[in-house]
Specification:
The protein has about 110 residues and is of the alpha+beta class. The protein has a single domain, classed as Alpha-Beta Plaits (2-Layer Sandwich), CATH 3.30.70. It contains three helices and four strands. It has helices spanning about 15-35, 60-75, 80-85; strands at about 1-10, 40-45, 50-60, 90-95. The protein has a four-stranded antiparallel sheet with strand order 2-3-1-4. Strand 2 (about 40-45) and strand 3 form a beta hairpin. The relative contact order is 0.29.
């Protein structure tokens, strides 16, 4: 499977940005990516004070390449960049080797 990681550093971000990012995901970003053509799934992860990232898994290499190109071209004006105050420190394509669904199943939700 075809992955893409986009990561921002939170080291110099404004205080409270983690909550601002979580609210943005819940209120806007989750809906944008739900049902997106070419995308299998996306997760949002953060370590407060360290980093915030989006992890994407795409159905085709074309979908990943198109998204990566479009994102990279607009990264300086991306919502995460505006909230954090700096562009991503990493935009990296990768291979997802495997996915296992545990006994308790998978939950798709705008905020956990």
């Amino acid at each position: 499977m075809l992955g893409l990681t986009v990561r921002w550093s939170l080291a110099d971000a404004p205080e409270g940005v983690e909550e601002q990012l979580a609210s943005y995901v819940a209120e806007t970003s989750h809906a944008r990516f739900t049902g997106m053509a070419g995308l299998r799934f996306k997760t949002w992860r953060q370590v407060p004070g360290e980093w915030f990232e989006g992890c994407y898994v795409f159905a085709t290499s074309e979908a990943r390449e198109d998204f990566q190109r479009t994102f990279t071209e607009g990264a300086d004006d991306a919502p995460g960049t505006r909230m954090i105050g700096s562009p991503p420190i990493l935009v990296e394509a990768c291979d997802v080797v495997a996915i296992a669904e545990g006994w308790d199943g998978f939950t798709a939700a705008p905020r956990l």
